[in-house]
């Protein structure tokens, strides 16, 4: 659905160099990105501020012309075939609206049906589904300007999907949403992913979105791809380890040393021991601890995606 090769975008900016003088400076926002996304994939596209995520999305959707490289979305060259491409893609930019500010949500949806020339029956089916899954009914007749951010975002998602796009681009779809709206949006996107018809490209700073929705993660930094693979692959690349947390009834004179599971921390005055799973398996570690101490509780803590991504952002990457 998406193919990009050596995609590059440079911006020329003017910077002050004295009271009246200005210098031209070239900012390379995207620096040779290769990307291939198959039908039905849900791809998380993340990176620190200014990494080039929005610029990439703008090139994929035909808003910006690449400085160099090739790009095809739904088999089309985005800038040259922008009108045609609009029928195949849906776009949600969290900070911008595609709805009519003064119209009730229902009327915006109706206008979109005419703009995209969607047959009435197909429109009704898709709208019904969004109304059910996103709980739109309570505010369908409210003008967009009176909607809360969470309600508007649900409206935006519906608006992006009513013409049945093959690819959905989402730039920060959960930004600023409260917990309930965030869950509603995530649940809806997860459902969309399960049906497997829509390809989804999602940029976000909220890594819980990625964990919940995306099996594949592309990380971009300074305009370059620095990771392309699963979240699990990222953890193994950066040596993230699962932890075994043992709560003891009685404090031991010395925390036990376990082969293949180094002790990470001793907490709660010795009542809690935290081991990292290296070469040892969970069962082995639990069995050993059970033989050495009276356990009140034991839990396994999965590696934290925030930690591993923070480590990745801090790692310098070769230019
Ligand atoms: N229109 C523009 N003119 C000049 N520079 C730009 C323009 N748009 C983006 N840039 C620069 O390109 C770089 C990448 O910006 P981009 O908006 O793609 O980053 P991002 O990864 O989406 O960041 P964020 O997470 O902060 O939204 C930044 O250095 C930014 O200042």
Folded structure, characterized:
The protein has 319 residues and is of the alpha/beta class. It has two domains: 2-236, 3-Layer(aba) Sandwich (Rossmann fold); 241-302. It has helices spanning 53-60, 82-88, 105-115, 120-134, 149-161, 179-195, 207-213, 231-237, 282-292, 305-314; strands at residues 2-16, 22-37, 42-46, 68-73, 89-93, 167-171, 199-203, 216-221, 224-230, 243-248, 263-267, 272-276, 295-301. A six-stranded mixed sheet has the order 5-6-7-3-8-9, sandwiched between helices. Strand 8 (216-221) and strand 9 form a beta hairpin. The longest helix is centred in the middle third of the chain and has 17 residues, at 179-195. The chain is globular, with a radius of gyration of 24 Å. The structure holds adenosine-5'-triphosphate. The site of adenosine-5'-triphosphate (ATP) has 12 residues, from strand 1, strand 2 and helix 1.
Architecture per CATH nomenclature, i.e. the level-2 architecture of the largest domain: 3-Layer(aba) Sandwich
Summed up, the helix count is 10
Q: What count of structural domains?
A: 2
Low-confidence spans = none
Protein name: ABC-2 type transport system ATP-binding protein
Keywords: Antibiotic resistance, ATP-binding, Nucleotide-binding, Transport
Subcellular location: Cell membrane
InterPro entries: AAA+_ATPase, ABC_transporter-like_ATP-bd, ABC_transporter_ATP-binding, P-loop_NTPase
């Amino acid at each position: 659905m998406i193919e990009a090769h050596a995609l590059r975008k440079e911006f020329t900016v003017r910077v002050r160099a004295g009271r009246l003088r200005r210098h031209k400076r070239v900012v390379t926002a995207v620096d040779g990105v290769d990307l291939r996304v198959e039908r039905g994939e849900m791809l998380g596209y993340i990176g620190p501020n200014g990494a080039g995520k929005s610029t990439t999305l703008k090139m994929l959707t035909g808003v910006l012309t690449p400085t160099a490289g090739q790009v095809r979305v739904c088999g089309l060259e985005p800038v040259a075939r922008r009108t045609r491409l609009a029928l195949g893609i849906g776009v949600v930019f969290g900070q911008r609206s595609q709805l009519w500010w003064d119209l009730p949500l229902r009327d915006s949806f109706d206008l979109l049906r005419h703009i995209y020339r969607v047959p009435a029956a197909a429109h009704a089916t898709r709208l019904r589904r969004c109304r059910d899954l996103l709980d739109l009914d309570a505010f369908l007749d409210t003008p967009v300007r009176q909607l809360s951010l969470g309600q508007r975002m649900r409206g935006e998602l519906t608006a992006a999907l009513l013409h049945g796009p093959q690819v959905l681009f989402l730039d920060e779809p959960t930004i600023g949403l409260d917990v309930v709206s965030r869950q509603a949006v995530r649940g809806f996107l997860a459902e969309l992913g399960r049906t497997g018809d829509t390809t989804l490209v999602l940029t976000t700073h909220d890594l819980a979105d990625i964990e919940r929705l995306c099996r594949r993660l592309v990380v971009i930094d300074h305009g370059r791809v620095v990771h392309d693979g699963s979240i699990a692959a990222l953890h193994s690349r950066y040596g993230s380890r699962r932890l075994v947390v043992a709560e003891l009834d009685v404090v031991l004179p010395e925390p036990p040393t376990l082969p293949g599971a180094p002790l990470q921390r001793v907490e709660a005055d010795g009542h809690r021991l935290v081991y990292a799973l290296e070469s040892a398996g969970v069962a082995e570690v639990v069995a050993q601890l059970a033989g050495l101490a009276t356990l009140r509780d034991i839990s396994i803590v999965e590696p934290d995606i925030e930690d591993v991504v923070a480590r990745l952002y801090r790692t310098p990457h070769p230019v």
